[in-house]
Amino acid sequence: MPIRDRALSHAAIRTIAAAALVAVSATASSANLGFLNNTPITYMKQRDLQALNNAAQIALNTKKDGESLEWDNKGTGNTVPINGTVTPQETFESDGLKCRKVTLVAIAKGQTQTWMPTACKQSDGKWKLKKQ
Q: pTM higher than 0.90, yes or no?
């Protein structure tokens, strides 16, 4: 076999091996996240997440601790109806920023999912999740 053909053959084998490794890694990764199957997050598309973010911005700006704002994904184009609540829980100051713990709830296909992050108000007036 000429040197050029051997080089192409080795390149093809490396490409196939890399693709196989990626496929195995993806399978293992999704197996580790199997507990998320059929939870609201698995049905959410980018526009649904934007609807939740918009509701969170409004709730964090207008609701008192313990007051909830209802949200839904109507108008996002998703065929799976998703709704829930955003409830600010605790307001405090951190690193000179106004922060609030918030409970985010999403309900889809009979399943409920809850997140409890902390958001801080940035200098531009928008709330951003605080890295934990």
A: no
